Write the structure tokens for this entry.
Amino acid sequence: MITLVKGFHDILPEESSRWSFVTESARWCLKKYGYREIITPIMEKTELFVRGIGQVTDIVEKEMYTFQDLGGESLSLRPEATAGILRSVVEHSLLRKEPVLKLFTIGPMFRRERPSKGRFRQFFQLNAEALGDDDPFIDAETIACACSILESIGAKGLLVEVNSVGCKTCRNVYRVELKKYLEKHLDGLCQDCQRRLNTNPLRSLDCKAHGCSEIVKSAPLIVDYLDEPCREHFSGVRRGLDLLNISYHLEPRMVRGLDYYSRTAFEIIDTDLGNTKAVGGGGRYDTLLAELGGPEVSGIGFAIGIERLLMGLRDEDERFARNVDIYVAALGEPCRETCHMLVDFLRKNGFTVETRYSSYSLKSHMKQADRVGAQKTIIVGSDELENQSVTVRDMSTRNQAIVPMDDILTFLRGDGD
RNA sequence: GAGGGCGUAGCUCAGUUGGCAGAGCACAGGGUUGUGGCCCCUGAGGCCGUGGGUUCGAGCCCCAUCGCUCUCCCCA
């Protein structure tokens, strides 16, 4: 038996209705907020991710599926969607036609991590990006949009955490101060934090090791180092959220894994999933577009993990039950041709129809009708064939009627009202 | 990368000091010659993850190996 690639997973028919319920709800929400769908390739030149995400991030250093294609070029499966979307925007000069662009995409991402609960090597993400506007209210709108998607699906126990990580200027000042502070408590830090003190001291802020979290509690906070424009922007974001009645926690120690974030950063955590499992997150980026050869405008975006969202949903929901309008049961060889045509005729008139072609007893036809969730079963046997009629059984009331073949459509339609 | 848990029927799992391979659910047929869900009966379905070792005899003990899963790290 040839099995799945480790960390990949199948979405079986049983789950797929829940799956598309989630993605369709999300599409409808995004549309309300003015986002349009963009579908970009799942593979890009490796260089795009190195430039976009940052060479020294965990993702690029050790989690990418990178390989050389036959032409010798280095390609990578996308570990996240933003870089590819922005590449496409720049390549097709979309921002010249439209100075403010709102785009979303839904598709698989790939990271070669150790799989665990809610973490896969191939996972689906919904990704939304609003480009060309740095007004704080659009940050608030973006967070509201993410919340609205999650609420529309019925996710419970959500917590929105917001922070500002400042711009390059103020973050540099802060980094120096933070580093000074951490150096004073060097002995208490875990090995990881000691190692990255010079490369990325901000990472220590959300280190879960006991020693580190204690030390970090009284560390200087980035909010106290924001320069005037960043401070003003951040308070504008909070004002925007207040006006929309979005409840949120200020999380002054939140930093995010991707290097490109500036100013607004946020995460949405599903507390039901336990252990700080983020179901979504995002933030603003000031320089990413320019770095990819685009105009000097900023953007803000977020990602939602579809699998994690699904984990929070209850299994038994009637919305996801299997059902068809009509099951057609043919009894015996002479009826097969009539039923074959009848099934086709009903489908062409807008009904969802199921049948089985090989000969079965009526009993097993009925079981099958039950299994596929048929509202009605049409039975065609020798009696019916002789009279040019069919028997229509309502599966929930068990009422049956003999209907002339010619009247079948009017009967089925009239009965439905 | 570090550390736990688990591999027996399609699924969830029992399996006694080593002695014929089990249950529930699901599936198929019947009880009802043309009627589903509930009930009853019957049936089919197994290289007990794989390879080796100990033994008269291994699902069980030993060694190796592969796979899955969870935790930490990090994230979605």
